[in-house]
Amino acid sequence: MSAAPADSRPGPVQLCVGECRPELKARSSQLYSFVTPTITGLSPSRGPESGGTKVTIMGENLGAGSSVNVQFGNQTCEFFGRTMKEIVCYSAPSLSGVGLVQISVSVDNAQIRESLTFEYIEDPTVLRIEPDWSIASGHTPLMVTGTNLDVVQEPRIRVKYAGRESVNVCKGLNSTTMSCFAPSLMAEYLPGLDTVKHADEFGFIFNNVQVLLVYNNTNLVYYPNPFFEPLSTSGVLEQKPGSPIILKGRNLIPPASGGAKLNYTVLIGETPCSVTVSESQLLCEPPNLTGQYKVVVQVGGLHVSPGAVHIMSDSLLTLPAIVSIAAGGGLLLIIVILVLIAYKRKSRENDLTLKRLQMQMDNLESRVALECKEAFAELQTDINELTSDLDRAGIPHLDYRTYAMRVLFPGIEDHPVLRELEVSGNGQQNVEKALKLFGQLINNKVFLLTFIRTLEMQRSFSMRDRGNVASLIMTALQGRLEYATDVLKHLLSDLIDRNLESKNHPKLLLR
What we know:
Helix content is 31%, strand content 29%. It has helices spanning 22-34, 319-393, 400-408, 428-442, 445-456, 463-476, 481-501, and strands at 38-43, 46-48, 54-60, 68-72, 75-76, 78-82, 86-90, 99-107, 110-121, 125-130, 133-135, 141-147, 156-161, 164-172, 177-181, 197-198, 201-205, 221-223, 227-228, 236-239, 245-250, 264-268, 271-272, 274-277, 281-285, 291-299, 302-311. Strands 10-12-15-14-13-17 form a six-stranded antiparallel sheet, with no helix packed on it. The longest helix is centred in the C-terminal third of the chain and has 75 residues, at 319-393. Pfam families: Plexin_cytopl, TIG.
């Protein structure tokens, strides 16, 4: 084995960075430039001055380093999370009100040099909510009107009732309009609840805007949930094809002003049907289906099934059924022909009878016309004689008072109405006062009609009593004959209605 040369011993170790090996210097510079964080923008660029806006700062290599700090002016943006391309944090409340603030980002105490601004604007406000009602299960659409509603990132609406808080979602349409779904008032569906409820608290969750958590400028009421009766006692309703399905229930139309309506969806299995709603029932025009399907009603946040429906298919007729139908149809045709023959014969007899009656009527008219001519001639003679007598004596007549009393109270010469009121004792003033008050009641149409109808329902009220009462009322209403005529029209209308309903002809007062 030969000895090693003397100059082959290892020499001193040399340390060099980039000078000995240029490729290491290039690689280290590339690594340094790769991990340098840069910022390109942020979203959104504005939010309410109460803070709470979820801000995303976008850039490159933002996941480098062990810690990150984001400042909105002098306020720290609450850190939420970050990746290599974005940093997410929640804006703090503004200390200087509305306006622009500078954003600074530092990673491991090294500040990223990039000019970014965030604008604080006025907090959103709510001015009006339409409609101001929902049902207990909620999820009915509400339209919210206000200001700066488009800056709220995840708007929600809330109610609190009986210690339970319920939240539902909203969607901003523009800066002044937002659509929301009403939260449910109760956790479970209670069919027997039929009273109107008011929420203990009602408000909105708009980022960090605390003012709208409890909104007291609305009278949002919760009407009872619609209740549907079972389709049948067995739970399955037998239905013919094309026949409408009737769902009976209550609270189907909320008693809110302005013709409030609920948006019903009725599913026969998975297929919706056309719906018509009234106060006590819901009419569903079923699709062209056969078989048994579950019926589900959806309205707001309520999903309820009153049962199932079995739509029977049209079965083909068998030969015995066709023969039976043909025999029945032939028999029916024979009966119709016999009825037509009998009707024609009866019509001929009626025509002959009508002709005989017509001839008798013509003869009677001729005799009556002849008698009228003779009577007219005699009347002319009598008139001439009376005229010659009236030239001296004048036309005999009675005064209105005597005429009215003889018409209203025939056969009574000295009626108490004609005399002054005399009451024994000290009750004269009380009686006069009572009569004045009763006279005021008589001049009230509602009281007078009720009074007459009540008297008519008394079985002990005789025809003589009816005539006396009618005469007394007409005497009291001599100064208001138009009013008396109007009352008589109402009474005659009642009489006509009763005669149409019944074959009997009741004898009623003041007819």
